[in-house]
Each structure stands twice: as structure tokens, then as C-alpha cells.
Amino acid sequence: xxxxxxxxxxxxxxYCVSLKEFLKENGVVFEEIDVxxxxxxxxxxxxxxxxxxVPVMEIGADIVIGFDKETILxxxxxxx
Length: 80
What we know:
Structural class: alpha+beta
């Protein structure tokens, strides 16, 4: 898979933890960005998604808000 995947998250968010485990189980390589410590990335996430909550995923040019398995699988073209 060549699609670039970013996960904006925090270490204390249970949905973020579940999302990252889900991605690992499906063999998805992703860049994890901790918006609790990286304020520049936090601002970038808010500008891209319009959301202050996490998780937010960037899959190529698409933004996924929350842990939406079906949308994630569809965008990554992963069969499960």
C-alpha cells in the first residue's frame, strides 16, 4: 500500500488506542502524531478536519473523524 496514512491522536484516548491496534492488525503503516504535545500538529489537524477531538485520520487526501472502521477499510481498500 502506498497511500500515506496519518493518525492524529493522544495517548490517553481509548478510541485512538483501538484505532492504532486495528491499523496494526490490518498491516497498515501509519504516522502517529500526538496532538497533546505537538501544538503545530494540533492546529493542522483542526484546520484539516474542523474537529478538536481525536482520533482524526488522514488517508491520502481524505479525512476520517473518529474510529469509523467501514470508511477506513474502504479508503485503504483492505478486505476483512
